Amino acid sequence: MVGVVALVLAIHDIPLANHLETVERDRLATKFERDAFILGGRSEEALEDGSAATDTGLNAMVLRYASEEDVEVVITDADGIGVVSSDTTKVGEDLTNRTEIEQALAIGEPQTGERYSDTLGSDLFFVAVPVLSGDDRVGAVRISAPESIVDSRVGDQLRGLLLVALLSLAIASAVAWLFAASVVRPLRRLHAATDRLAAGDLSTRAPTDEGPREIRDVADSFNSMAARTEQLVERQRSFAGTASHQLRTPLTALRLRLEQLSIEAGDDEQIGSTVENALIETDRLRRMIEGLLALSRAEDTAVGPDVVDLAVVLHDRAEHWRPLAEESDVRIDVAAATGTMVSVVPGAAEQIIDNLIDNALEVSAPGSRLSLTLLSGPASTELHVIDEGPGLSEDERRRAFERFWRADGAAPGGSGLGLAIVHQLANASGGNAELRTAPGGGVDATVTLPNGRVRAT
């Protein structure tokens, strides 16, 4: 046990020590840069009027800061000549041979880093910032210290932080050792049950015969929730499926009677128009019922996914829709390389593509183009159906996947379920669906599906 704890300490603390050292150095650099800007702001006016060297308040401020922080501070004018310094030998000296000062004055940006100092005979840590007056650079402020002093500060902070980390790890190890057997195992099983429920297995239940009383109580509550959820979902599916099936027969009979009435109306335009409108609404109701059935089937994720060549399906469905598109003078272009394998629930690829093309054709003007494209990535493939229609606002794109939602000005006869079906089928397949703004101002309907591999036979 002692050996395991020692190994954990080594694996944990060595990378942590390196990280904390980097963080502490960055913190010091940020602090010195901030302080340099404060000193620069204090000296701006004095540098502009040339009184910095005789400004007793500024000189006192520089000396006090250098003493408190154990650093060297030097302020130069726009020509790089030292005018105020905690090291009086640098007053009146041309400091442009110090790269950091020369760069701060030349490009007007802070300079932070380390270099070898001939004066000190050792490495030097520095921060140099320009002093700006509007767009003009009227001087520079450099704060520097021997690298050994910075190392000492970093070491002090590091030792304290590492001590806290070691103490925390020791306490965590003790707690984990005491409670792992009675807490972690039942929690893992409860976690696994929640994962199965989230994946669509509504019959899953968590074990309630192990672990502390609190965990058993949580497991009981989880099981009650899972049972209630399963019951509600089954009722919903049953209602949607049963209602849709039951409505098909009278709806078919109603359509037949309306068609007969249209024949009997002959040349009576008023009756003919009324019957035609009734037939349109009947067709809309039929599509709505079919959409509800499709949604009911899509929500049943108990069926395992299929691996299909999405490019083949896309080309096939494009050919199916091309005659209807040509009637509206809309061109369908397909860019998809065969062998683009994706994992989807059975029949989902065809339904997703059909619904997206159907929606796109509704808003496509004569002479426009409908682009169908596949983009393959390492883990997933994106299907893009891009139209050149009027497009949708951000709020409309967000609401478009809601059931029965239809955009203002949409063509009559739609059910408002097409995109809801696309969204459900994409989620059931482990992907997602979204609407984006196309480059030409239309809609880029994008469905992302996980890549799949054909099983070897």
Structure write-up:
It is a single chain. The protein has three domains: 2-153, Beta-Lactamase, CATH 3.30.450; 213-296, Signal transduction histidine kinase, dimerisation/phosphotransfer (DHp) domain (Helix Hairpins), CATH 1.10.287; 304-450, 2-Layer Sandwich (Heat Shock Protein 90), CATH 3.30.565. The protein contains ten helices and twelve strands. It is an alpha+beta fold and 457 residues long. The mean pLDDT is 82. α5 packs antiparallel against α6, α6 packs parallel to α10 (418-428) and α7 (310-327) runs parallel beside α8. The radius of gyration is 36 Å and the shape is elongated. It has a five-stranded antiparallel sheet, sandwiched between helices. A five-stranded mixed sheet has the order 7-9-10-12-11, with helices on one face. The protein has a two-stranded antiparallel sheet with strand order 6-8. The protein has helices at 2-49, 56-69, 99-107, 147-198, 213-265, 269-298, 310-327, 348-363, 394-399, 418-428, and strands at residues 72-77, 82-85, 111-117, 122-133, 136-146, 306-309, 331-335, 341-344, 369-376, 380-386, 432-437, 443-450. The longest helix has 53 residues, at 213-265.
